[in-house]
What we know:
Elements (H helix, E strand, L loop, with lengths): L1 H9 L4 H9 L14 H20 L13 H14 L6 H9 L15 H16 L9 H8 L9 H12 L4 H18 L18 H22 L3 H9 L2 H10 L7 H18 L11
Amino acid sequence: GTMGRYYALHDGETPEVAQAIEDHYRPRFAGDGLPANSVGFVVALADKLETLAGIWGIGLQPTGDRDPFGLRRQALGVVRMMVEQALPLELPQLIKAAFEPFGTLANPDAFKADLGGLHAFMLDRLRGWLRTWKDDRWDAVSIDAALAVETARLDQLPARLDALVAFRALPESAALSAANKRIGNILRKSAPELLGHAPKINASRLVEPAEVALAHALAQIEDAVDADFGAGHYAESLARLAALRGPVDTFFEAVMVMAEDPGLRANRLALLASLYARMNRVADLARLAV
């Protein structure tokens, strides 16, 4: 890379191109510097992703302590660039793009485009690195909670993790995390199809004062919660949800979710699913429960 930069300058290439030739190897090891310009970032990402997809596709993934092709280092380089440089890219799309060129070259019997496996491998590298980055600002529990939900845009992770730190400092966080875990268990057992969705609630089927109060409290803040999340104001979104601790506690004290009446039961599950979907966009709050 270093000599390549000199050769490029000697041959009349622009300084940006010459620098990218040197930088496309970066980061070469833990703690190494990142590329110095956008051209270098593009080439470095492409080089590392091609190596990961090609070696992974022929089944030569790292095993135990063995990593002869340096895939752990390559994966760490990709996630570091995406996070530290705040690149607004989606990791699953990058992985898909990296595998696609091999489709016309590879023997289908010898090559497997294991997008999910490579994605999980890269998130494992990311998880370990985040625990040491930024002077241990984020603990393992917060990192696992953040990575347990949809994690395509790695550039959003620092803000999400900082929001979790702020949320965990709130007096309501422990009770809400426990309630979130309880809601998740109920939905997985009785209405798994509602997980991750915010279904419409039938106001006419809200009969108990506690469920009316919870639905009303959620309706008052849901637009602001959605707007904060969409704008990347994750701490503000979680802080608004923290205000629901009282109505949530009262709901579980006074309302039988699994009512005998199918209509009441379905509506109560929809109410919980709507709450659950909003509570678990920044992170899986159930993982914060003690």
